[in-house]
Design a protein that fits this description.
alpha/beta; 4-stranded parallel beta sheet; 21 strands; 27% helix; globular
Length: 382
């Protein structure tokens, strides 16, 4: 029997598991293939909706589904201590969970995502709320409901981050929200970014920078926060910014279980071949989604795009069929231009499509897709 083990549910792990289950259904039914998904959590969060829920645009119940309900019935799923992987033994083709259970594999797919490293900046957790943190989502809504005016700072602490366009989206929607509340003229919005500009892709950066200027949003770029105290951001160069509300994007890193492995760097990002997504040095081990070190966006769409080639190539190998499918670096991200309008960013390793001015039509496409994700994308229907 060929055993496929997938570390992490979430967008990447769920989609690749379902694609494999569909492609290998006959072999699974014959008892020749077994697919296992392991995750500490027993629920699945659609993280792109956290921003909209925090601003009262979507409901909280749109965010979460039981992981088991999304997986094909033939897939084995273990959570809690049985799914919380504490050791990856690449030499012996096995992983070991918190309760000591060993899972042997013929193929391993690592989809353990990116994680918030709050403690890397002194005072950050005590002062900041973050739409990247599920526990903060409803707190942000409550805080904004009672906000009467003042200085709001949106701070990106370090790069890379998941959903990299979301800080820009948050800033533009905050402007609209404050205007609707009638307190925009009583408020100051400051956007700080650790690199030049407001976003990493030039076409999008140019568009967003102009939109910020039109709305009176202040930009402080190449601002690298050192610590936070007394409602004040302090940069590594000593520049201070006072705030009444701080919406922060904490530093990100790969999963702790990857720490110290030769396949991961000091931030726990995994070194993979940019086309095959093989972990370098291991033909039977793959990594997808946020957990890789690829120089592309850490976005949910990336995990979706990557899941296809990985599932295809493992299926070809098991079935003995020819063909090699390569990942071309595809990324697609909706990018909201304020409440009620959106654009999108589409690129791969070789090209970037023009970023169009946000429209109402694309906004409704985004909202519809967020609902369709559960029944279509997560279940690998499309």
């Amino acid at each position: 029997m060929k055993k496929i083990v997938i570390l992490g549910g979430g967008i990447g792990g769920t989609i690749v598991a379902n694609k494999l289950a569909k492609k290998l259904s006959s072999e699974i039914n014959k008892g020749n293939v077994e697919i296992t998904v392991l995750d500490k959590k027993d629920y699945h969060v659609y993280q792109p909706s956290q921003l909209l829920v925090s601003l009262g645009i979507e409901d909280y119940d749109q965010l979460i589904r039981p992981e088991r309900s999304l997986l094909e019935p033939s897939i084995k799923f273990y959570s809690g201590n049985k799914g919380d992987i504490r050791k990856i033994d690449l030499a012996n083709h096995k992983v070991i969970s918190a309760d000591g259970t060993e899972y042997n594999y013929d193929y391993l797919i690592i989809s353990t995502g990116s994680h918030l490293a709050w403690n890397e900046i002194k005072g950050y957790r005590e002062h900041a709320l973050s739409v990247w943190d599920l526990d903060d989502v409803l707190k942000i809504k409550q805080t904004l409901d009672s906000f009467k005016g003042g200085t709001i700072v949106v701070n990106v602490a370090r790069l890379p981050i998941k959903c990299p366009v979301a800080p820009v989206e948050l800033t533009l929607m905050l402007h609209d929200l404050l205007r609707k509340k009638g307190i925009r003229d009583k408020s100051r919005i400051i956007y700080t970014y650790p690199a030049p500009g407001v976003f990493g892709i030039k076409q999008a950066n140019d568009l967003f920078t102009e939109m910020f200027k039109e709305r009176g949003i202040e930009i402080v770029s190449e601002y690298v926060v050192d610590y936070v105290e007394n409602n004040t951001l302090v940069s590594q160069s000593g520049e201070k910014i006072k705030f009444d509300l701080l919406f922060g994007v904490p530093p990100h890193k790969g999963a702790d279980v990857l720490s110290g492995l030769e396949i991961a760097d000091r931030r726990n990002w995994i070194d993979v071949d940019k086309y095959t997504l093989n972990v370098k040095g291991y033909d039977n081990v793959y990594a997808i989604g946020d957990t890789t070190n690829l120089p592309i966006s850490k976005a949910g769409s990336v995990a979706d795009f990557e899941s296809g080639p990985v599932a295809e190539n493992i299926a070809h190998d098991i079935l003995g069929t020819s063909g090699k499918v390569l990942y071309d670096g595809s990324v697609f991200c909706f990018c909201v231009g304020g409440i009620g309008t959106s654009s999108y960013i589409r690129y791969n390793y070789d090209f970037v499509l023009p970023v169009i001015t946000p429209t109402t039509t694309i906004w409704w496409m985004k909202l519809m897709y967020n609902r369709m994700y559960w029944s279509l994308t997560a279940k690998a229907v499309i």
